[in-house]
Amino acid sequence: MTRTDHPAEDRIATWHVITGSARGAAHTVSGLPNQDAVARQDGPGGTIAVAIADGHGHVRHFRSADGSALAVDVGCQVASRIAVRLTAGAPGAEEAALAGQELAEVLVADWRSAVAAQLAVRPYTAQEHSVLDLAADPPEVPYGSTLLVATIAADWLVCAQIGDGDMLAVCPDGRFFYPVAGDDRLDGQRTTSLCQADAVGSFRTAAHDLREVPLVALLLATDGYGNAQADEPWQPGVGRDLAALAAEHDHHWFEQQVPDWAQRCASTEGSGDDTTIALLLHPGGDPRTGRVQADAERGGPEWTD
Amino acid sequence: MTAPGSGWPYATDRNNEGLNSADGPGMTRVEPYSRMPGGGISRRPLHFIILADCSGGMKGEKIQALNYAIADMMPHLAAWERDQEQAQMFVRAIAFATEPWWHIPDPQPVAGIRWKPLQPVPKGLTNMGPAFAMAAEALAPGRIERRALRPALLLITDGLATDPPGQFEAGLGALMTQPAGKAALRLAIAIGRDAQSAALDRFIADPNVPVLVANSTEDIADRLVAASLAVSRMSEAGADRSALARRLFGTPDDVPAQIFEQDTII
Description:
The complex is a heterodimer.
Chain A: E1 2-3, E2 9-11, E3 16-22, H1 25-30, E4 36-42, E5 48-54, H2 64-88, H3 93-121, H4 126-135, E6 147-153, E7 156-162, E8 166-170, E9 176-177, H5 199-202, E10 204-209, E11 217-221, H6 223-226, H7 235-248, H8 251-266, E12 275-281, H9 292-297
Antiparallel strand pairs in A: 1-4, 2-3, 3-12, 4-5, 5-6, 6-7, 7-10, 8-9, 8-11, 11-12
Helix pairs in contact in A: 2-3
Chain B: E1 44-53, H1 61-83, E2 87-96, E3 100-109, H2 129-138, E4 152-157, H3 167-177, H4 179-183, E5 185-191, H5 198-204, E6 212-214, H6 217-234, H7 241-249
Parallel strand pairs in B: 1-2, 1-4, 4-5, 5-6
Antiparallel strand pairs in B: 2-3
Helix pairs in contact in B: 1-6, 2-3, 6-7
């Protein structure tokens, strides 16, 4: 497992993973650290798990940088375990969907355990306790963080998301879809969070059969990325361009680019917020099977272009 | 840029390699130095809406002082915009008397604002509710960007609301029903001590933020400077509004800080 603040890329059997994370310009000025985190974990049989998280950063969430770091570590561990199990069998749609739900349930439980374990060795200081008392918050709230997790195993993409940030699945022809459902409660001011009491219920999970829905790329990004995009909606242009770029360049080119994209989005020219990107690229050229349209016609993913 | 609805303030080109161009005033589009997917990046919009009283009571020195002070306020806001890391500010203005109307209907980059003087409406009343409803409409989902920072609203009036029964409440209710209206920083300047009222406190709805009273026309400019500081500093993402209010307005320590009551998580 690696937690990275720097670009990381590895060749695995099926997918390349390129990551970039940059501290927001506003955080630089205020002396705050990068409260985003990113991790990936490779497993047997070419399975891959990737997680990104965005610590809330508000004064109530004064340990949110730790919370996001714990979240991505736990996210990759849990997703990898599920990936191994999926690979061992020949999962159908129902089993894969259940794996997504299980992912959310175990993630929340394990993240809370990880927070408790850290508090056991690093208890709240008197000053931190006073903040906790003023806010009347339970002990996990200072660690509040979002989490986006994706794993690819046995031709299945299983993903889970709580809170803001974006997941974008990109097809070779530039069409895209959102791998997990939207959440109307995310109004740009507030977010769902791992630290809330009903976190499991606020997770959005899904499973997609990559034999039926061939993808060229999967983008995971914290909200510093989307908030920097001038287009509204920005997803169609990004999906189209990612497909075109993937057709023109190999993953080495993306290794150079992705960290720079994160840096630019986090700069004073973009959102000024911490920005983390994890880009999963299909390495085998065009993964199309000709079944995308058929899938859409029978009510599969809701394609958007 | 794909503009859902009219009045969106900026346009961007596709962010192609080697592109090197600039847009109009206030545009902060990046000069690309590598190829990035999508339509380019820009700072998050901060929408600032002025609601200015143009009732009959504003005639003469008051409206002149108000026009002068608002025009003088813009460079302060533009300077702040240049110096901070997150936002590009867009200004609109609603004038109101018996009825409201858009004085600046489309969001204008603050750096490019040339303030056109307001004129009072002879015998015009001070009906605030319809002005709030007009602002609410402008802040409805789909009318401002999803990525916009919390908007800021500044109400400037010299009198008590003269709305017919229920109209003030209906307008304020419409504003507070919109997520962006409820989340907005709402400030009020009362021109003349008599103008301060419970209605303005209800508009602000934050015990940390007092009504700014301008006892004389000379005070209007000072209060607008204070308001512009508040709009800029308190609108920044993650700002501790209570602490800033203490610093900017001298809010007493016994007013409970609201930072811990802010909704950060759902």
